[in-house]
């Protein structure tokens, strides 16, 4: 090989040996073998030579190319091996490290209270019935003795849908569906979501209610209070008592608000019960004769009581939760407090 070409080979070998990684080696390789590199220049020079000198010079350039390629290949092999082992080292898995634990979830306080309520009433022989969340105006209002022009409709801000449908405002709609399907004796518990256009610290547009309905011969308000006393003892503690106050619902007559003695102060009066010793927890009453008639049940033979409570409200009272939004935000720090 010509001396000047040998110098190029020498220079290439030094550059390749100095390459720190395969990227640097590639750059160096292109500087010699690339179109714009040193060999490129030699090929250009070849074209300018007189024809007679071209074969010999061409052979020399080819020899130089092969020699350079050989050297590149050797260094390339070394660098690849080095880089591969560095990568394997970096990605090595330490099998002795502790695994990622799955955190165990907890039942949501609303679910928890719902289950407790079902337990209390299932123990008394109630069966669970879940009605639809999208209801007809008939089941949610009219059959419950609340026709379209009835002022009591204003008690509940309703989300109306098309074609006489609405999002049920109360689980009471389930009473009608049950009484249409089944003749007395009836003992039904109906938990589920209800919807009202209402939104503040203690009201949310979607919340849960639990409805109870008993229809049979000789059912009285005393039966209602007896069952609610048992409910209060299980949910709020053994010493709890209930008290009935007159109220109004179109589908019950008489209607009552049910208060439970304050579980925080035992009835002495505190900030939770606003000094009264009592907390209002639910609405109830004797099923209105008209409602029984609407369902084809003879009110002269049968009587019944119904009650309805907000599950969020019971959960908030039971656990001392002061904002209903905490129940829908699902902040894990909040929910974790309800572990068994
Ligand atoms: N449905 C009533 C409400 O949502 C509660 C209720 C149910 C009252 C059953 C009486 C009887 O306010």
Can you describe this structure?
- This protein is α+β, with helices and mostly antiparallel strands and 340 residues long.
- Helix content is 42%, strand content 19%.
- It is built from 12 helices and 9 strands.
- The strands form 2 sheets. The protein has a 7-stranded mixed beta sheet, with helices on both faces.
- 30% of the residues are buried.
- Bound molecules: phenylalanine.
- Phenylalanine binds at residues 170, 172, 211, 249, 252, 283-285, 306-308.
The helix count comes to 12
Distance between the termini: 87 Å
What is the averaged pLDDT score? 93
> Major sheet: order of its strands?
1-4-5-9-8-7-6
Multimerization state: single chain
Approximate helicity band: 40-55%
H/E series:
HHHHHEEHEHEEHEEEHEHHH
Strand content: 15-25%
* CATH T-level fold name of the largest domain: BirA Bifunctional Protein, domain 2
- Class of the largest domain, according to the CATH hierarchy? Alpha Beta
Q: Would you identify the CATH architecture of the largest domain? A: 2-Layer Sandwich
């Amino acid at each position: 090989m010509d001396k000047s070409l040998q110098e190029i080979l020498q220079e290439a070998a030094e550059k390749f040996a100095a390459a720190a990684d395969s990227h640097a080696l590639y750059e160096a390789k292109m500087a010699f073998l690339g179109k714009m590199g040193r060999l490129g220049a030699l090929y250009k020079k070849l074209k300018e030579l007189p024809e007679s000198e071209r074969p010999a010079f061409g052979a020399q350039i080819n020899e130089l190319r092969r020699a350079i390629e050989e050297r590149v290949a050797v260094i390339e092999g070394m660098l690849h091996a080095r880089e591969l082992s560095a990568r394997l080292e970096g990605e090595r898995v330490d099998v002795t490290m502790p695994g990622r634990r799955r955190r165990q979830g907890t039942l949501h306080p609303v679910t928890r209270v719902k289950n407790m309520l079902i337990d209390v009433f299932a123990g008394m022989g109630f069966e669970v019935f879940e009605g639809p969340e999208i209801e007809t105006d008939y089941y949610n209002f009219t059959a419950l003795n609340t026709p379209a022009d009835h002022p009591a409709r204003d008690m509940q801000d309703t989300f109306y849908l098309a074609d006489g449908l609405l999002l049920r405002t109360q689980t009471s709609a389930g009473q009608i569906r049950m009484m249409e399907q089944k003749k007395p004796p009836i003992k039904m518990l109906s938990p589920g979501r209800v919807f009202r256009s209402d939104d503040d610290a203690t009201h949310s547009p979607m919340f849960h209610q639990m409805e109870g309905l008993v229809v049979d011969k000789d059912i009285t308000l005393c039966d209602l209070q007896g069952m609610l006393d048992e409910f209060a003892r299980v949910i709020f503690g053994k010493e709890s008592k209930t008290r009935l106050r007159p109220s109004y619902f179109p589908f019950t007559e008489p209607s009552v608000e049910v208060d439970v003695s304050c579980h925080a102060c035992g009835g002495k009066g505190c900030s939770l019960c606003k000094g009264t010793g009592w907390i209002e927890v639910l609405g109830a009453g004797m099923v209105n004769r008209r409602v029984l008639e609407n369902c084809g049940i003879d009110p002269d033979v049968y009587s019944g009581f119904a009650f309805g409570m907000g599950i969020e409200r019971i959960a908030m009272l039971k656990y001392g939760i002061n904002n209903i939004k905490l129940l829908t935000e699902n902040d894990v720090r909040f929910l974790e407090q309800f572990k068994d």
